Structures are given as structure tokens and as C-alpha cells.
User: Fold this.
Amino acid sequence: MTDLPQRFSNPALPARVSICEVSARDGLQAESRTLPVPVRLELIGRLAEAGLSSIEAGSFVSPRAVPQMADTASVLAGLDLDSSVSYPVLVPNRRGLEDAMTAGAADVSVFISVTESFSQANLGGSLDETTQRGVDTARAASAAGLRVRGYLSMVFGDPWEGAVDPNTVAGAARALRDAGCTTISLGDTIGTATPGHVTTVLDTLVGAGIAIESLCLHTHNTYGQALANVYAALQRGVSQFDASAGGVGGCPFAGSATGNLATEDLLWMLDGLGISTGVDIDAVAATSQWLGEQLGHALPSATSAAVTGR
Assistant:
């Protein structure tokens, strides 16, 4: 067992944080190597054994567009969907939702952008069209009794359009909330956010009536700001964060986006702050090393290398 950081708690921060582990979907979809279903199932199983209670299992998108996520129905078939662990799957439209429901999914995610350029480049339609599609899918999923989380991309900047107005983000967040999304994940898709930017966006959303308890932060470490941005969000009361074992992944549709925040890097900081997660950092670090072997390259997590000595 690794030495843990000294703990210095701050009563102004959340006492407990929940982590949505995204490596098996958001992480793998950015990789050139497509892992077979048994390996994806082993990854998810290792993460569940480590104590992660929300693990993305895949997505019901076109295998031509994202071949790494082909056979997500087979992945769900290999999981215990009645366990205490939730296994959200991404559904891009009503057809994807129907396929997910047929496969037995109880948790789904919808995905919209806050910028026109990314909607055209990634989602295959105008901002209005893709937003309406995501909202309609979320409403249908909620009406069917599924748990629904919503992803907002390009919240903190767009590689084609540049700056994004926080009020635009607030409008998109309200649309997802009103469609039944109980969690709204704010994506720093190209990793350009800084702590002050995060604080401003969160304050704008709360001022627009979005409950801080419903917000999740999804950071990328492109400029080394991911953990600083997490800390800024903690100070505003955010207690949900997306992270990826080993820092695997990025956005395959935004060339400047590099790796996700590594789960074990997040765990190390949270443990030092005395914030409970229920997740075993040693098990996650070992899983990250194993995953790097499956993918054929080392993963960027500094904590994984320090914990395992590799």
C-alpha cells in the first residue's frame, strides 16, 4: 500500500466527492487501438473493485464514426446492471436511446455543444438542431424512467470560435435540466480553463438557477490546469467530477484536446484535503498501468507512476 498524503481538511469544502470514471468510454474512444469486449469488461471490473460507483460503459454511436465503442451492447451484457454501480452509456439520439434500452441500460448520457462550430464538426448539425436532438433524447429517457446525465462540451472555449460566453453555457444547462438531466457535466474540452474562469462559469450558472449540487466538472489537462480547476470548483461547492484512469483520453473531434484528468491524480489531491471518495488509489493506479499495457503506451498520470514505481 502506498503512503498517502498528509491530510489537512477544510470545512469550507465538500466532505465527500463522487467521481464518474470515464476511461472505458471517453478515454478509449480517443485511442487508435480498439480494445475487445473482454478487455473492456476487465477494465470496468477492475474500476468497480477499486470502489468507483459510476463507470461509463460505452456509447451507442455509429461504429463507423467511433469504432472503439462498437459492441457496447455486449459490454452491458457482461455487467451486473442490478448492482450498486451505475454504468452510464452515451446516447446521441433517439435511435441510440432505443438501442441502449434494448441492451438493458438504466443510466444514459446525452451530449450537446455550446458552440456552433463544434456542433457542426462533431455532432453533424447546427447548434439548434443538435441541441434539440439532445434535449428530445433526454426527455424520452427521463420519461422512460432512466437516469440521465447531460454533457456540455466547449464550456470554457472552442478551438474555432475562441471565447464562450458563460451566459450561453447557462442557457444550455437550463435546457438539459428542464429535459430531465439530474447531473450536468461541464466540459473543458480543450483544456483552456483556469480557476478564475471556472469560478465565473459556476457563479453564472448558479445565478441562472442551476443548483450547484447538479453540476459536475470535466477537466482536461492540456495546459496543466486540471487539478487547479477542480480546487476552484470545490471552493464553490461542486462535489462531482469526471476523471479517467491514467489520464487516458481526450476529444477525438478537437485536435488540441489532450488527456483527461487522471483519476488517481484527483484521488491524491482529494485525500490530502480530507475529502472522502471511497476509492482505492492503489487499485486505480495498478489498473492504469495495466490499461497502458493493453493500449501499447504509457499513460500520463504522474500519480500512477509514483504509486506503482513504474
